[in-house]
Amino acid sequence: QAFFCLLLCIPWGSSCPPSCQCTEWAGAKAVLCSSRHLEEIPKDIPRDAVFLKLDANSITRIPSNAFRHLSHLEELDLSRNAIEKIDRAAFKGVAAGLRTLDLSSNRIRSVPKEALLALSAKLRLANNPWHCGCALQEVLWEARLDPDSVQDITCHTAPREEYVGKPLLQVLDAGVNFCSARQRTTDVAMFITMFAWFAMVIVYVICYVRHNREDTCKHVGYLKSLPSTQGRAE
Predict the structure, then answer these.
(1) What tens digit of pLDDT does each residue of 3-28 get?
(2) What helix, strand, coil percent values describe the chain, rounded to 5?
(3) Alpha-carbon span 83 to 61, nearest angstrom
(4) Where, if anywhere, are coiled coils annotated (predicted)?
(5) What pTM, to 2 d.p., does this model score?
(6) Is residue 87 domain-shared with residue 151, that is, in the same domain?
(7) In sequence order, what E strands does the chain have?
(8) Do residues 42 and 27 lie in contact, with contact meaning Cβ atoms separated by under 8 Å?
(9) Which among 157, 176, 195 is the end of a domain?
(10) Residue 103 located in a structural domain
């Protein structure tokens, strides 16, 4: 029995990334790559991995289709990295089966909402330098967030200085709506554009009428300058 347990705890050889340890955890395949000084996500993670720990590394970006081949993946830990950028299709291929995704304690300021709203996983987003805006608000409203970490989603930057340093949930509970502010900005821009076009049309009409009036006056003056028929008869 001890020999069998030893076999379960040793790496799987060529099927396991050299910087990771692959083993059994709760009856499923687990890939443990914690604290291995990784700067990117390993390419050769086993396809049947169910648990993947990439925490406490130096990963800065999650590119598109980074986990697409891991159709069995249920738990993904990317906490305590240096992640700044998450591509729109970063979790494509694992969105349906993923149960937990930990992105806490990174350097994430913003993330395409499509990358997270496509997931049914429980999300941990705490302790990041978030910019509080409409996209993050929609994630908070629509995504399945870990209730224990929601209070730690704090505004590092925001449209107004008074929101900086406050939990996003507290700001929203006070009645702030970042999405309506963006809508107002869009409406104002559309109004200005429509007004500019309307003004151009008015100016064109005025110039057209003035030009026709001048041509008419010139034509009338020309007709008046011609000798009359009676003068010719005499």
Answers:
(1) 334 334 444 444 899 999 999 988 89
(2) 40, 15, 45
(3) 5
(4) none
(5) 0.72
(6) yes
(7) 21-25, 28-32, 51-53, 61-62, 75-77, 85-86, 100-102, 122-124, 130-131, 155-157
(8) no
(9) 176
(10) yes
